[in-house]
Amino acid sequence: MTVIEEPVQLSTYNLLRAALALFKKSPAELAEAELQQAKTQALNEFRIESRVLNAPEAAAVIITEQELQQAYQEIQGRYDDEAAFFSDLEKNRLDKDSLLAALHRQCKVNTVLELVASRAPAVSDVEIGIYYHVHADQFHLPERREACHIFISINPDYPENTPEMALIRAQELAERLRKKPHKFADLALKHSECPTALQGGVLGTVPRGTLYPELDAVLFGLKAGEVSDAVKSEIGFHVLLCKSIQKSETLSLAKATPKIRQLMNERARRTCQRAWLAGLTAPETEER
C-alpha cells in the first residue's frame, strides 16, 4: 500500500471534510487504509483550492465578516451546545481561530467558483426545445395513486397474530372502513403495526411497481376514496385506501421549460467551472 505523506500545507480542516465525506467519521476514527484515502482526497482538494486562490479572479474577492460569521454559526448550530462544539473541535485538532481561517479560505474558493460559473452562457429556448424532444420520456408521468394502509403482521408466537387471527382482524377493519372511510387515519394509528401508523397509514403518492405486487394490483383497481378487502403480502395482511388518483400525463414544453432551464443552466455552470479549473496553473509551492 502506498502511503501518502501529509504535506505541511494540508489543513486539518480539509482532512476532516474528506473523512466525513468519504466515511462519515472523523480522521481519528479511521482505519489506516481509510485515513490514507481521506488524505489523498484532502490533498487533491487542497491543491485545487490553492489554484483557485492564486487565480487572478481571486484577487478582487473579499469575504466580509458577516459572511464568515454566518459560515461559522452554521457549523456551530449543528451542536446542542457550545461545550460540545468546542470539544469536537479539540478532538479534530482545531480551535476557533483555525476553523475561522479554514472557513475564510472555503468561502473565498466558493465565491470565486460562483463568479466563474456566472460567465456560463444563458440557455436559449431553442436548446430547451431540443432537450425536451430528445428526452421526451423524462416528461411523461405515469398514473399515480395516493395510498394509505393498515398493516397486521403474521407472527404465530402471538395469538392475535396467527395467520387466521391476523386475517380476521384485517377483514374486520376493512369492513368498518368501507362504511366509514374517514376513520382510516384514526384506525391506522390504533391498529396498524407499520411505522406509517403515526402518519395515519400514509404511504404517499406512488406509481405502479412501488409496492408489493399483491398490493400494487389491488391499489390500482380501486376507485378514489375506496377501501380494499384484506390483502395478503409476504409480510402480513393490509387494508388499503386509495385517497386520490393522478392520471398519467405528459408535461407540455411550456410546463417542462423551467425544469429544463434549471438543469441546463446548472450543467453549463459546471462545464464553465471545469474548463476554467483545467486551465489554471499550479502554484510554485505545489509544483515543488
TrEMBL record:
Enzyme class: isomerase
Listed name of the protein: peptidylprolyl isomerase
SUPFAM superfamilies assigned: FKBP-like (SSF54534), Triger factor/SurA peptide-binding domain-like (SSF109998)
Signal peptide: none
Catalysed reactions listed for this entry: [protein]-peptidylproline (omega=180) = [protein]-peptidylproline (omega=0)
Pfam families to which the protein is assigned, alphabetical: Rotamase
EC nos: 5.2.1.8
Keywords linked to the UniProt accession: Isomerase, Rotamase
UniProt-listed Gene3D superfamilies: 3.10.50.40
